[in-house]
Specification:
This protein folds into six domains: 95 residues, Cadherins (Immunoglobulin-like, Sandwich), CATH 2.60.40.60; 97 residues, Cadherins (Immunoglobulin-like); 98 residues, Sandwich (Immunoglobulin-like); 98 residues, Immunoglobulin-like (Sandwich); 101 residues, Cadherins (Immunoglobulin-like, Sandwich), CATH 2.60.40; 104 residues, Immunoglobulin-like. Helices cover 13% and strands 38% of the residues. Strands 1-7-6-3 form a four-stranded mixed β-sheet. Strands 8-14-13-10 form a four-stranded mixed β-sheet, with no helix packed on it. The chain is rod-shaped, with a radius of gyration of 62 Å. The two termini are 118 Å apart.
């Protein structure tokens, strides 16, 4: 209202003679019209300075200033320059470019500019109309500043000679109001009004001319407008007095009307003007010309000066000007002229394709956006009129988006369904605008819409369960296995961090460490196969979204055995300062079983396979040790010169890559009077053995081939069991120590506890060891043996019990073990 009031006051001051009541009525009715139809209408004078305030839309629409910023309020133009802008901080509409009414609307009585005030979220559009009022910023201008007339001295009094009017782009009171002719005795100036309201000037002869008295008259004409301050324009009139040209050209019509389609080719004849002159000769020759041609029409329309044809000389555009009013002059050779008016109507053709303007577009749309979310605001218009200006808008086939129109010529591109970036991360939407002309024209614009990611996909491990093998005794920080998880999301939502899940019921989660970025697992401690062969942890992969999503996998870690345990001698007992003696009858033949070295290895598999050999003996070549069983046998019969007591050092070696060993000292006493047991006697036939070597080789080769095939088939079983296959003899196959060599405190405990509380520590007893095990014969033989060795038994076991303590011998579940106390 303030801008209306200020402008009304300025207009009243510019012209006090103007009816102020009319202005007030006009402005109030304009404001009421704008309010009633949901539009804002402001009236402002042209040529206001840039940054001048037109009005406050926030106050006039009842909007909060904060709402303008939040809803991205802005002013958009429809096919015209952006002459105004919105200051969101204050809510004012400001002038952003020079506004010249004459440039924008030419001679139109009403000059209005149409804008749209757009607000988003939700979308609202308010029509913003600016009525540009004229101010007196242009002076009257004569197209021809020097007017030349040739008149016969015989020209009758009262004869009228048309003059070209001055041109003033301003309207109303600011346009030309009067003309004044310089003081003279022969001519007067009369002004009449044409059909369109323009002034029509005529020079009237008031006094007879006399060439002999005055052959030339110099006059001056002034065009004065009604503005405040007054502006004027001047032209000079040079009149030459001639002899005998008493007829002026006469047009067949006072007003000519013609039409021409826009974009007509050059040279097209619009119409032909016709003027006649009754004089003959030079005075009868007529020349046609335009009295005044505007800048916009210059070079567009021309006239044949001899024939009077009006031709197309340039591009005629209906959208620039739909009608043209021209003044044509017909002048004879004597200088006399007449005028007519030519009105040319431009016929609109469908020569303008629809215009697609993206007023607002979001480069990205979240994949969790609800259906109906606005992605872009599109303005469609066509500069043509009628059916050629009616436009329809459509998009390429897409079930994900659709067009919604709630405001004329404006379309919202909204989502039609839930989006999924993982299925389609980007859309290219083709917007097509088509008019209803014949033939129809269309425009196409492609919108690229990127779907932004939300964290809707948890990480996924490439395997549900990982199995890893690691050798025992590896240093801390040894690489174990690399886990890999994938996330279909993007950016931070796909950035995965790994960590080991804590288990409150076990400390196994602390056995390993993990690189949180790569998923690589490393050892955090030393592992001992003899204590643990397997443990399980759970690893969680968590992404970087908000809120984060995670998934878990299981990692099974299997400890592999290494040869880190040396064999342990169980029998004979090795005690410092005392070695138990084994007695053998002097009549023992070759191959007689004297004793057996019993050893175990806490390792498993090949690392626990033991081999025995004698490395030191009192008399070489008298005793031998079985490589696999550890049995000590005689190589020949005893002779009188043989020592009664012999000491053997037996080296027990395991089968590891880097073999470990232990030595056992065996003390043997040759005693006279002991019986020879047939069960302890093994007769060997060397010749037979030599003869059977070939057969043994064939059997061994077949066995190895069979075992190789069996090994491949059994790999899957070993993967599951994680235990080496061990052959164990039955209870009756285990060695039975005679009471001759052990005290009565030797007890048999079947299924006793394990050496290290784990079934894996089974001693490896090679096949065939039962063949030399100690066995008892009849009870009579047993009693006899007891009586003969009673004295030796008491003295020996007394020293053993005092020095060695308790010893446990473990053979595994379901097998007996012996404990010497």
């Amino acid at each position: 209202m303030s801008i209306l009031y200020r402008f009304m006051k300025a207009c009243c001051m510019m012209d006090r003679r103007m009816n102020s009541t009319w202005w007030i009525d006009f402005l109030m009715s304009a404001l009421l019209f704008g309010v009633s139809f949901g539009e804002l209408r402001y009236v402002l004078p042209e040529e206001m300075q840039r940054g001048s305030v037109i009005g406050n839309v926030a106050r006039d629409l009842g909007l909060e200033l904060s709402e303008l910023n939040a809803r991205r309020a802005r002013v958009v133009a429809e096919g015209t320059s952006q002459l105004c802008e919105l200051d969101a901080a204050s809510g004012n509409i400001l002038i952003s470019q020079r506004i010249d009414r004459e440039e924008l609307c030419a001679q139109a009585v009403v000059c209005t500019l149409q804008f749209q005030l757009l607000l988003e979220d939700p979308l609202q559009a308010f029509s913003l109309v600016l009525d540009i009022a004229d101010i007196n910023d242009n002076s009257p201008v004569f197209t021809n500043r020097e007017i030349k007339l040739d008149l016969l001295e015989s020209t009758v009094l009262g004869r009228r000679f048309p003059l070209e009017s001055a041109h003033d782009p301003d309207l109303g009171t600011n346009s030309i109001r009067e003309y004044k002719l310089s003081q003279n005795d022969h001519f007067a100036l009369e002004m009449s009004t044409q059909i369109n309201g323009n002034a029509y000037l005529e020079l009237v002869l008031k006094k007879p001319l006399d060439r002999e008295v005055e052959s030339e008259h110099l006059l001056e004409i002034n065009g004065i407008d009604g503005g405040n301050p007054v502006r004027s324009g001047t032209a000079s009139i040079q009149i030459r007095v001639l002899d005998a040209n008493d007829n002026v050209p006469v047009f067949s019509q006072r007003v000519y009307k013609a039409s021409v389609p826009e974009n007509s080719p050059l040279g097209t004849v619009i119409t032909t003007l016709n003027a006649t002159d009754l004089d003959e000769g030079v005075y009868g020759e007529i020349t046609y010309s335009f009295s005044h041609l505007s800048d916009t029409m210059g070079g567009v329309i021309e006239i044949n000066p001899r024939g009077g044809e009006v031709l197309v000389a340039g591009v005629i555009d209906y959208e620039e000007e739909s009608s043209h009013e021209l003044h044509v002059q017909a002048k004879d050779g004597g200088g006399q002229a007449s005028h007519c008016k030519l009105i040319i109507d431009v016929i609109d053709v469908n020569d303008n394709a629809p215009v697609i303007e993206i007023k607002s577009a979001s480069a990205k749309v979240s994949e969790d956006s609800k259906p109906g979310t606005m992605v872009a605001l599109i303005n469609i218009y066509d500069l043509d009129t009628g059916s050629s200006g009616r436009v329809t808008c459509s998009i390429s086939d897409s079930v994900s988006f659709k067009l919604v129109s709630e405001v004329k010529n404006y379309y919202m591109l909204v989502t039609n369904e839930m989006l999924d970036r993982e299925i389609q991360p980007e859309y290219n939407i083709t917007v097509t605008a088509t008019d209803a002309g014949s033939p129809s024209l269309s425009s196409v614009k492609v919108l690229t819409i990127v779907v932004s990611d939300v964290n809707d996909n948890p990480p996924t491990f490439t395997q549900k369960q990982y199995n890893a093998n690691i050798l025992e005794n590896q240093p801390v920080g040894t690489f174990v296995v690399k886990l890999e998880a994938q996330d279909l999301d993007d950016g931070d939502n796909a950035k995965i961090l790994y960590h080991i899940s804590r288990d409150t019921n076990s400390d196994e989660w602390s056995f390993l460490t993990i690189n949180s970025e790569t998923g690589e697992l490393f050892t955090a401690r030393l592992f001992d196969y003899e204590q643990s062969v397997h443990f399980q942890i759970r690893v969680t992969a968590r992404d970087g979204g908000q809120p984060p999503l995670s998934t878990t996998c299981t990692v099974n870690v299997f400890i592999k055995d290494t040869n880190d345990n040396a064999p342990v001698i169980l029998y004979p007992v090795q005690a410092s300062g005392f070695i138990a003696e084994d007695m053998v009858p002097i009549e023992a033949p070759r191959g007689y079983l004297v004793t057996k070295v019993v050893a175990v290895d806490a390792d498993s598999g090949h690392n626990a396979w033991l081999s025995y050999r004698i490395i030191k003996a009192t008399r070489p070549n008298l005793f031998m040790a079985d490589l696999h069983t550890g049995e000590i046998r005689t190589l020949r019969a005893f002779m009188e010169e043989d020592e009664p007591k012999h000491t053997l050092v037996v080296l027990v070696t395991d089968n590891g890559r880097e073999a470990l060993s232990a030595s056992a000292t065996v003390s043997i006493m040759i005693t006279d009077g002991l019986p020879v047991f047939n069960e302890l006697f093994e007769l060997t036939d060397e010749s037979q053995g030599s003869d059977n070597v070939t057969l043994y080789l064939i059997i061994a080769l077949s066995t190895v081939s069979f075992l190789f095939i069996l090994l491949i088939s059994g790999v899957f079983y070993f993967k599951l069991c994680r235990r080496g296959y061990v052959y164990r003899s039955t209870t009756t196959s285990l060695p039975v120590f005679p009471t001759t060599y052990c005290s009565s405190t030797l007890a048999d405990f079947s299924r006793c506890g394990t050496l290290l509380q784990d079934d894996r520590y089974d001693p490896f007893l090679t096949t065939g060891s039962w063949r030399g095990d100690f066995r008892f014969g009849s009870s009579t033989d047993t009693d006899t043996l007891k009586k003969r060795s009673a004295a030796y038994q008491k003295s020996t076991l007394r020293r053993v019990s005092a020095e060695r303590g308790s010893l446990k011998v473990r053979t595994g579940p379901q097998h007996p073990c012996y404990v010497i106390k």
